[in-house]
């Protein structure tokens, strides 16, 4: 994990350095005077040798200084600070939807469709298949059309109260939820055929005990394994969907910064998102080890 | 060639296969003929008819500059497919070459490459493409490069896994003992055995590539006017959501349709190419593993 984080720091450092030609010249245009270009390059930390540049980049990072936005000359950390809450709200809500809809749906389908092929099976794979493939921004468009424009139940745009976060969260959560449901269903079907299930049935346990205490825990680890991937998908989705619903989050900040070549903001947000994804993946591994010690033994 | 014909014949007999082939035929037909038939008409401005709802003259209404939504949606098929082919095609060539090379490599190389690739994959394709865009610059060319680079990792990973799968077989060990040179090993022993799997994966990737490119265009980072694709039309359409929802729904529907068709094609190809694995009884452990691997792949 430390290696990956170090790679991330190097990568964000490299973004600006890899731009072909003179970044300052490219941002300001051909007619800008040389002084302004030199000043901008200095602001980007592009003066001096590469090792020297990297050193000052690292010391700035250690001090929590991500530079200043070209556009608003705000510190990048304030830009992020103002917008992070809205994105986190979206992510938390979406993750809750994925887990609270995906896992139960998969469990129920696994139990209900056991040993039966035909229409139920077809309907299940068609629904989850379609939901799993449709991209979030298309889903967001349809959802906004139905619930915000036609039915007028929920607001289309803005952030703030939780009801504005519902549509975007559903839009980015549906596809991952469908994947989780599929996986959980397959796992459930597998768990139902195990011998411990025969034993549990022979004890005449109640349905709730049977499925809740014997099937669910064995299926959860599988869903947990996916959650790192799901988080990455949700973050990607948030970046795109914030644009549809005009939510001022870090995703829309990233896109706008990219359009006006505001590199400090791009660098800062990339670093932040990368760190979130890496840390979350490490946490998932840890949680998996706690939930299922066999994983740790197998890994060692 | 005979195996191609056999696979096609098998595909037509299954409902999903027939559906996927029909969808692909429709898309390719549109890509070839729509710009020839309606290319000029789709660019015709008519400010007096701007922002209209559906009518007999314009079936899906007009955009903010009075251009026909339906015609533009159909004509945009060509650009969408061409960009997709360019991006995913080059990603496939580079990624597969890289993956096979790593697969032949030493153990330390493989584990280092796996870590690097998995880190890239954990960010999701859209996010990765956005970072690349920061370096190569916004626009059509930048989008193709960005999506191609972000897909290289998935192809490399797939090719590497498949290569290892073949290289550990006994017939390869036998060939090595007899002294078959490495290049011949790659062309005569490896390629025929991985070609089918990689083709299937290519189809699925074409689907996700199309969605990724549309996402970037949708954010305003991809195709720039006067060129247009579905993603860009969707952005324009959301601006007139209340006056003419069809302006957003039509391109959204096409993105969904194209994405679904290509992913169905991948599924159907996989089934037709290898009927045993996919129709084996549910309790067969191999099937379950394959499906779980598939779920992980598609979620990523």
Automatic annotation (TrEMBL), chain B:
- Top-rank taxon: Bacteria
Q: Which Pfam families match?
A: BPD_transp_1 (PF00528)
Keyword Transport in annotation? yes
What InterPro entries does the record point to?
BP-dependent_transpt_permease, MetI-like, MetI-like_sf
Q: Where is the ABC transmembrane type-1 domain?
A: 77-266
Q: Which residue stretches, if any, does this entry annotate as coiled coil?
A: none
* Keyword Transport in annotation: yes
Where do the TM regions start and end?
Answer: 79-104, 198-221, 241-265
PANTHER family per record: OLIGOPEPTIDE TRANSPORT SYSTEM PERMEASE PROTEIN APPC, PEPTIDE ABC TRANSPORTER PERMEASE PROTEIN
State the similarity comment.
Belongs to the binding-protein-dependent transport system permease family.
What is the name of the protein in this document? Answer: ABC transporter permease
Source organism per UniProt? Conexibacter stalactiti
